[in-house]
Amino acid sequence: MAIHLCQKSYGTIKIYIKVIMHLESICMNALPVVKEAGMFVAENRRQIPWGEIEKKGDRDFVTSIDKKSERLLVKGLSAILPEAGFFTEEKTVEQGDSRLRWVVDPIDGTTNFIHRTPVTAVSVALMDGDDLLIGIVYEVTLDELFYSWKDAGTSFCNSEEIHVSDCSEFRKALVATGFPYQREGRLPAILETAGYFLEHCQDIRRFGSAATDLCYVACGRMDIYYESYLQLWDVAAGILIVRNAGGTVVDFSGSEHLTGQQVLATNGRFIEESLSGIRIPPITR
């Protein structure tokens, strides 16, 4: 049976084919763009007066550096792939509704940035609908550039291949987590979940950057990472990097079809043990 495509659909398919055939090249071209934005962030790490900080919500802040970093990213990524739209945290550019879009967090770890404490990252993903095509995370304070692309078969940090840990005992697993800005009514489940991991695993770390937490699972520094009440720009890039490094990423219902609001990432083990202790309810679409 013949399939007839309208001009717009045909053009969209051609763009998609072009992108899929050149994912590695697109990723390599995007790396210096992401690193430039990260270096800009690093150069502006200073104690920022509270009068220069905007408040988006309870415990949720944005600085002029977030916005300038995002503009740098939008300009550079647009030059690489003009056909792609954007879904960005600070909304400095029109938020496109196209399937092909860059998902951008110009500073993941703004609170750390404000207080001049590690960890701070720039996170960029390229997505086609829900399909992750490219993931790039630049952790500023350690100058570490993590990246991968669909079907790459591996993930990288500063051009070196990385892989998840080989930890096989839940009680020896080191766990990373984070906490939401809005905590009212959520604390009992959050604290009970943290208590479970503190009792059954080696220990918990809280770095303050979801993108970095995922990359630390990907490179074997952490064995488990869980967090809820997130946004897609926090985790999209890191999810692909973990999966291509041999790890597993699901939501709190155990589904691999992620919205970005909840993430459980492991070294490929510990999914059932972790889910059995998470008391934070799954978030549905």
Features:
2 domains; disordered N terminus; 285 residues; D-Maltodextrin-Binding Protein, domain 2; Fructose-1,6-Bisphosphatase, Chain A, domain 1; 5-stranded mixed β-sheet; alpha+beta
Under the CATH scheme, the architecture of the largest domain is 2-Layer Sandwich
Q: What about the largest sheet?
A: 7 strands, mixed
Q: Name the quaternary structure.
A: single chain
CATH homologous superfamily descriptor of the largest domain: Fructose-1,6-Bisphosphatase, subunit A, domain 1
Runs in which pLDDT lies below 50 for 5 or more consecutive residues are: 1-10
Radius of gyration: 19 Å
Topology order in helix (H) and strand (E) letters: HHEEHEEHEEEEEEHEHEHEEH
Q: Please give the order of strands in the largest beta sheet.
A: 3-4-5-6-7-8-9
Mean pLDDT: 89
The count of β-strands is 14
Global geometry:
globular
* CATH topology (level 3) name of the largest domain: Fructose-1,6-Bisphosphatase, Chain A, domain 1
Please tell me the total number of domains.
2
* Beta strand %: 15-25%
Q: Could you estimate the helical fraction of the residues in percent?
A: 25-40%
* Backbone structural class: alpha+beta
What is the C-level CATH assignment of the largest domain? Alpha Beta
SS element count, helices: 8
Ends distance: 35 Å
Report on this model:
- The protein has 285 residues and is an alpha+beta fold.
- The protein folds into 2 domains: 7-161, Fructose-1,6-Bisphosphatase, Chain A, domain 1, CATH 3.30.540.10; 170-277, D-Maltodextrin-Binding Protein, domain 2.
- Helices cover 35% and strands 24% of the residues.
- It has 8 helices and 14 strands.
- It has helices at residues 7-21, 23-43, 64-80, 110-114, 187-200, 210-218, 232-244, 271-277; strands at residues 54-57, 60-62, 85-88, 100-108, 121-128, 131-139, 144-149, 155-157, 160-162, 174-177, 203-205, 224-228, 248-250, 262-266.
- Helix 6 packs parallel to helix 7 (232-244).
- It is globular and about 50 Å long.
